[in-house]
Amino acid sequence: MGVNWVRAGSVYILLLGLILGAFLGSCNGGVSSRYARGNDISADMPLDSDVFALPVGYNAPQQVHITQGDHEGRGVIVSWVTPEEPGSNEVVYWAENSETKYSSLGTVVTYKYYNYSSPYIHHCTITNLEFDTKYFYEIGTGDVTRQFWFTTPPAVGPDVPYTFGLIGDLGQTFDSNRTLAHYESNPKGQAVLFVGDLSYADAYPLHDNNRWDSWARFVERSVAYQPWIWSAGNHEIDFLPEYGEGEPFKPYTHRYYVPYEASGSTSPLWYSIKRASAYIIVMSSYSAYGMYTPQYKWLISELPKVNRTETPWLIVVMHCPLYSTYTHHYMEGETMRVMFEKYFVQYKVDVVFSGHVHAYERTERISNIAYNIENGLCTPKYDGSAPVYITIGDGGNQEGLLYEMVDPQPLYSAFREPSYGHATFEIKNRTHAYYAWHRNQDGYAVEADSLWFHNLYWNSTQISSTASM
Ligand SMILES: [Fe+2]
């Protein structure tokens, strides 16, 4: 009898162990990649590096960059800097295979930041371009002119294929250069959604704004040829009141113009554009967004305007992630999540791209919107109407990668890995888009994480994903 009890007890303990093991196993989320990476230090490139080289000639235009210049994609804002004198504000442009040249006249601005005086910053908006057309453009005067080109997007429509690149927290280190080169080697990206933290000039004493200049020279090789859609991060704030610099975002807003007025916004820090089959909403993590604030009022009136029959893909870009399972910056996006997550679910936002956390992560489709302060219902759970949240703050700035993660991996985290890289979001039609994340150590064709998106408005079936380690 006693022996039987011992045997029964052993079986009981074994079963209990199996059940407990299965339960603990179910608490783990997706993949925490164990990819082994080099432990290289993210030093800024020296100012005499070739990537920062000045163009040849007196007062030669430099730091050339373009972004979308209207709401529909028929406009382009061309921005550049002249160092010695204002020079010309004119952009001359012409369509490929056309003899007809047009010109548009912009404006020039300068600013001071403590003991730094900016060069002459030109902004010129070109409008009424033909869709889906390659244009050449020329800036400068006299003997020193520089020529570039861009291709306008196809007309807005529900089944228009279009591919966005995704880059964040880039900085100007050797790793930043690898990320940009890696993105350039990927032939898919037609425009970049930049998730904030551009130059990291604020890492230098007195926020040395010369590093804003060097950064713009570094990225010119891409952003002069395809639009980067800007969002502002914490490194754009440049708030230094003890030195008389109390105006947040001063260098950023003087250097990077965006078409905010075209979407009824009152600030360049939050705005929207349509591009091909996508509706992009850019938000500001570091501007007021509480009830009744300008950003809140704009967003609440903006979301109902999105016509998913015209632009099926609804994408939100903001610097600080609402969901991240890295311990650094943990829960910094929580107040914004409380304010806006319910609207993202209500309006079926397909994906939210963020940066800030210097690593990569993708979540499942989850929401956490049932809580009402007293019902205790506060936990992320699967929600077929919720966005996927993707953190791509892995551009390669001088702060380095973040390795410490919440352990075990929460269920809502599908894939996470601290490696530098970029991603592409490849819209095929109104129902399908293919997303891929590429780490810098691999060839551009290698996808370290990928996912087929099924549009939330047109197809509410579950997403499928694959991940390679
Ligand atoms: Fe950041």
Residue share in helices?
10-25%
Spatially, the strands of the biggest sheet line up as 1-23-19-22-18-17-16-15
Low-confidence stretches: 1-27
The Cα radius of gyration reads 24 Å
Tell me the fraction of residues in β-strands, as a range.
25-35%
- Which fold does the CATH topology of the domain at 159-196 and 269-467 refer to? Purple Acid Phosphatase, chain A, domain 2
Bound molecules: fe (ii) ion
- The quaternary organization reads as single chain
CATH class of the domain at 159-196 and 269-467, named: Alpha Beta
* Largest sheet data: 8 strands, mixed
Which architecture of the domain at 159-196 and 269-467 per CATH?
Answer: 4-Layer Sandwich
The CATH homologous superfamily of the domain at 159-196 and 269-467 is called Metallo-dependent phosphatases
Number of strands: 27
Overall mean pLDDT stands at 92
Shape descriptor: globular
Structural class comes to: alpha+beta
**Through-space gap between termini:** 53 Å
Query: What is the count of DSSP helices, taking H or I runs of 4+ residues?
Result: 6
3D architecture notes:
It holds the Pfam family Metallophos. This is Purple acid phosphatase. The structure is a single chain. The protein is α+β, with helices and mostly antiparallel strands and 469 residues long. The protein is built from six helices and 27 strands. The site of fe (ii) ion has 7 residues, from loops. Fe (ii) ion binds next to loops.
